Amino acid sequence: MSIEDSFFLWYTVPMDGKTTFRVDQKIVYPSQGVGKIVEIKEKLFKNEPVLYYVIYIAVSDMTIMAPVDKAEELGIRAIVSADEANAALELISQDFEQISSDWKLRYQTNLDLLKKGSISDIATIVRSLYHRSKIKELPILERKLYDSARKLLEDEISYALDISKEEAESRIHSHLEPFGEYNPNPEKSRDADDDDEDFLGDPDLMDEDSDADDGDDEEDEV
Fold first, then answer.
1. Residue 100 per-residue DSSP state
2. Among 12, 91, 106, 159, which is most exposed with the fewest C-beta within 10 angstroms?
């Protein structure tokens, strides 16, 4: 038995209804997107059994292991209802108070919302950054954050409303621009400090909540 095997032993656990989510259920993992629980397994770690959800995230072709008893803390949740999805669409069409002109403050505020991961939080990011982009081109990190949030919103709305990704994208745009204006990639002037992004690095927003395994195993443990 290898050193790794001596620390990590897997057992398939028969479910007794005590877990919040079930095998084959679609869930939302904050900042990662819609995933499917493919297994619920017990992992023996240093002789202590820990129950895990094994979650496959299709959009990134990644498998994540999340402890069952930490699922709520991690923000893992069920896909919203159709009514909640439609409410999120309505939210992005509403007027709102303009956010700070300091992009670094905007970035941190929206990143915190992305990590919280509710559909209203994600819709808020999409709304604010889309309209900000019409005033001035977003700095690189904000553009990446906006793209991530929009993909997350499209993904969940398509599942919640049982529509295609293309239809979800169209509905989001029609709520952002009810009068038909189109501005997918605006080229506006930038502030001098827009390029000062080194203080935050260049995080991969879709992978920030998981630690990649160094081996050949494709599963990431949370």
1. P
2. 12
